[in-house]
Write a structure and sequence with these properties.
Rossmann fold; hydrolase; 9 helices; HAD-SF_hydro_IIA; TIGR01459 family HAD-type hydrolase; 14 strands; 7-stranded parallel sheet; HAD_sf; alpha/beta
Length: 281
């Protein structure tokens, strides 16, 4: 078991690494407002000449995520690239249609928030009315702050029973909401499997999203890269799998966790660093 070093701020990492792969939810903001010092810290990294790639398990494409950050008060130009699991999935679906492995007009049951359809805009899908006529299921988000799992069980069961292929573009099992942590899209993917269906998960901790992020950063030497996030299961395990250093921020979903060592042991994923809050110093 390796030793984890606790740091006072992100500035200590800036002295050690050139490329930052940063999570957004739980690190930069909680979905409604930035964490104290986060706006300034992100801008400070860019002023220090660092390459900053935001890498998020958001089922939305990159552009709406970037618009949200600007609305929250983050400075334009304080990151170089944004890679979301929704963007990776959209491009994958686009390629599948282009190569004939996915039929135009496929009926897609889209699970999202606030009836958001941006995950499939520009793709030749038709929205399925229910799980009964779906030919593909896309879980891009959860409304676990509004509905219980039984709601989703009723929605997904007919498709799962017919073994309709399902894609989950946000593997996070817990999400931060205005009313506290609730079950995320990753939990809905687990539910779909428990109902008899199969799921392809796109996003952290799986390697393709890290490969995409590192490619945008110029395929740097892995020793110059650090992945910063608030999830051991997704950010730390994913960063380790990609061969880069990792830093766990304790302001997000782990804010009330008292046994970090037990969590690390249980997931066999040990960060190189921990930080209380994403601030520069």
């Amino acid at each position: 078991m390796k030793t984890t070093e606790h740091l006072d701020g992100i500035g200590a990492l800036a002295a050690l690494y050139d490329v930052f792969l940063l999570d957004q939810f739980g690190v930069l903001h909680d979905g409604t407002s930035p964490y104290p010092g986060a706006v300034e810290a992100l801008s400070a990294l860019k002023r220090a000449g660092k390459t900053v790639v935001l890498i998020s398990n958001s089922g939305k494409r990159a552009e709406p995520n970037e618009h949200r950050l600007l609305k929250l008060g983050f400075e334009a130009g304080s990151w170089d690239h944004f890679v979301s699991s929704g963007e990776v999935a959209w491009r994958s679906f686009h390629d599948m249609v282009a190569h004939g492995s996915l039929r135009p007009g496929t009926k897609c049951l889209l699970i999202s928030r606030d009836d958001d359809r941006s995950a499939i805009e520009g793709l030749p899908f038709k929205l399925a009315r229910s799980g009964d006529d779906a030919e593909l299921v896309l879980i891009s988000a959860s409304e676990g702050d509004r509905y219980d799992l039984d709601h989703y069980r009723r929605l997904l069961a007919p498709a799962a029973a017919r073994r309709v292929p399902c894609f989950c573009t946000n593997p996070d099992k817990i999400m931060l909401t205005a009313v506290g942590p609730r079950f995320g899209a990753g939990r809905l993917a687990d539910l779909y499997e428990s109902l008899g269906g199969s799921v392809t998960r796109i996003g952290k901790p799986y390697l393709p999203i890290f490969t995409a992020a590192l490619a945008l950063a110029g395929d740097p030497d892995r020793g110059t890269v650090v992945c910063v996030g608030d999830s051991v299961e997704h950010d730390i395990a994913g960063g380790l799998g990609a061969g880069v250093a990792t830093a766990l921020v304790l302001s997000g979903i782990l804010a009330d966790t008292t046994d970090l060592a037990g969590l690390f042991d249980g997931l066999d994923a040990y960060p190189d660093y921990t930080i209380d809050l994403f601030r520069f110093r």
